[in-house]
Amino acid sequence: MFLQRIGNKGIRLGTLFDRAAARYPANSVILDHDLDVAPERGRRMTLTEVADLVDDLASRLWAAGVRPGERVVVHKTNGFDITLLACSAARIGAVPVLLSPKLDGDTVCELVRRVDRPYLVTDQDKLEHHLPAEVFGLARQVLLASGSHEEAVALASLAGSTRVAPVTMPPDHPTLVTHTSGTTGTPKLAVHTGRTFEARYRPQGTVASLVGRSEPVAIHVSFVHSRMFTAMPITILQGHPMIILRDDDPEVVADVFRQAPPGLIEAHPNTFLRWEVLVDDPRRPLANVKYFSSTFDAIHPRTVHLMLTASRRENPQFVQMYGQSEVGPIAGRTYSKKRGADADGRCVGSPFPGMTGVRVVSRDGRRPTKSNPGYIEVRSDGRIVTYLGEHERWEKQADGEWWRMGDLGYRTKWGCLHLLDREVDEIEGIDSTLEIEDTLFARIPELVEVIIVPDEDGKPLPVVCTRDDKPLDLAAWKRAVAGLPAMAEPVQWKLDDLPQTATTKIKRLELARLLKAERTGA
Asked: Where is the AMP-dependent synthetase/ligase domain positioned along the sequence (predicted)?
């Protein structure tokens, strides 16, 4: 779209911290964890120090033999150094391929095989406890971010390598490969270019610009997700101190926010859900937040309302953006204290003028409505250029400039987009499982998760998780489901037992499969 193209020279991840440090050299990056690749650096660095670390790691990768255009898979124990290693690889013209620490070893091997003989950056723990031995035969060379292994080269052994000048690749050259959530099977490898990433920057950059430069921006986003590589540049290039969270434990978060109160928070919907308990925390860790932002998945109005209640700022806002790894942010809306708990959570807003477009395609020739939703298709210059090794799958979702999201919905007469369900999650007789889940959250405060999946007969089956795993109040449940479509009796699980993606989405198809096996013995 034309506003995404003006002055788009590509995001240039390799020199990102250099450019930010040139503008704001003393601005801080605050971590809640030590970096495996550089534990001696501590948990608070200036942008100048981070830029130096990225340069240092880039020189070590070069010393290991990595060259421009080659692929570097990063699959290690969770930490911000995953993101820094990606910037380091990009700095020497290589293409980082980021695989979630949560992926199982067999899936990692399959994706490494698809990348075709890359360098692999991992660590001793992954090699000894998670990755099959065959991974050594799939990689050109295995490098270690921490620990040691007789068949791998430790990056620590390459410390002091001669620094290498940055390599600038063309803006349409691949700059990063991330993977999709994998909610419907083996993740796909999404190929981003410098230009597609810069296009994604435009819609999201406007939110951070509303917060004063002196106010920290806190980010709790999967380190392997494409959103990290727009949230992070927006933050540091606009001059905000940056708080990076690996842990979403409310106790840890409250302590970090007490020391450095953020003015804006970017996090996953399920993270905000977990932080509901912070509303009543005497440390008031969310009191200074002016803007809450989430881009990954549907978020429940109850959670939005509680976050806004916790802020003591004048007219705080919750910004929800609708998007996907393959295309970036497409539509957005805001909530306020006056319109939070009672807001329609299925409304995901309107596209960004001049930057993104949305259309809803009929499935049966009739106009898409709530009772007859259509396929949601979008367009944006932020769209990926292919799925690595699976271009035919990319082509199936692309229709010229348009991209099929895999979601069902409709648009109101005012142009607002309503998301009802994923295509694969549709249940016969239910207009929207997401809408029912929103209602149950609002009616039962003790719920921390509720997922409606089809049972072995195709009927809606609610899976519920409660705060502190307390037994579900069945009387409260019966009152809550009054007036809702008929469903099976709820099944209670522990939240940690639900199959999740890197961005804490629940893998609904996998959950349905596990439930079927449990209930039928199949």
From this structure: 17-384
Cβ atoms 248, 279 nearer than 8 A: no
Q: Evaluate whether 100 touches 222 at the Cβ level (below 8 Å).
A: yes
The Cα 418–Cα 422 span in angstroms is: 12
Helices marked H in 366-520: 391-397, 433-443, 474-480, 508-520
Q: What is the pLDDT of residues 164-221, one digit of tens each?
A: 999 999 999 999 999 987 665 689 999 999 999 999 887 777 666 777 788 999 999 9
Q: Which two tokens stand for residue 432?
A: 């929207």
Q: What is the pLDDT of residues 226-250, one digit of tens each?
A: 999 999 999 999 999 999 999 999 9
Return left, alpha or beta for 456; rule: phi > 0 is left, psi -120 to 50 is alpha, else beta: alpha
Find the DSSP H helices in 73-221: 81-91, 105-115, 124-129, 135-138, 194-208
- How much helix, strand and coil, in percent to the nearest 5, is found in the chain? 35, 25, 40
For every residue of 312-325, DSSP letters joined together read -SSS-EEEEEEEET
Q: Token pair 């998780």 is at which residue?
A: 465
Q: Nearest 5°: CA angle at 171, between 168 and 177?
A: 90
DSSP H helix total and E strand total for the chain: 16, 25
Tokens 């700022």, located at residue: 313
For residue 202 the two structure tokens come to 């435009």
What are φ and ψ of residue 195, in 5° steps? -75, -40
174 vs 177: CA distance, rounded Å = 8
Express each pLDDT in 370-425 by its tens digit: 999 999 999 999 999 999 999 999 999 999 999 999 999 999 988 899 999 989 88
CB 97 within 8 A of CB 103: no
- Count CB atoms within 10 A of the CB of residue 392: 9
Contact 265, 292 (CB under 8 A): yes
